[in-house]
Amino acid sequence: MNLLIRWALNALALWITVQLHVGLGMSRPGLGPLLVAALVLGLVNAVVRPVMILLTLPLTVITLGLFLLLVNALAIGVVAALTPLTVNGFWGAVLGALVLTVISALLTRLFRDDRSVVVSR
């Protein structure tokens, strides 16, 4: 069930980001293409992005983590190549990935399950 909730939150975050027109769009409107893009985004974040982070670790350390913005933009580019998601250039991918990350983090925090939090005394 947790996986379906995360998928729905990713779809909502992607929809909000697309509605803000910050460099990401959808070539085909509708819920179906949005859910497919959110699913592919989740798979890319789970499989491809960790490999990219590992391969670019020296650059990430040298830039104090700022290179992760480019890794996120590249992940968005991979998703755009596989789905109806459209990207308006490289900087559109960077800005879209940044906004998507912030919105996704806010939604995750807003809808987190407080029952799973263990407080040590």
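The record above closes out task 2.4. Task 2.5 opens with a second protein, given below.
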Amino acid sequence: MLRGQLDAAPFVMVFFLVLIFVLLGTLTYIPGVQVLLPVAADLPGTDKLSVSVTVDTQGQFYFENQLMDEAQLSLQLRQRVSSAPEPLTLIIHADREVTYETLVHVTQLARQAGIYEALLATMPRLFSTDSPAPLPVDE
């Protein structure tokens, strides 16, 4: 049994099956807006109550997965502040391409609504680019 000729047909069939799944996976439409967060490491988070606002590359605002203009966003933030038992923290999920001016504008809208702390969301670094420091050698 182990000395017989290896049949390639099962391997080819599995390869084509995997190829079909990969092609179908790339052709599948995934709804939503792609936001590429900047990468950073070792940043603190928050344990306070928070609300999040997403800003895409065109400067459009999303609150609770809904597209909103400035007036609607301001109204939603004011409603959240009035119903919160303690001060809220704003977490801004901004694309890498978003300008500093847009980020300041979002924090000003939050300040007018009564939110005085804002944090920028980032993606964690998957692999460390720094090499570890060498260990001291005892001589």
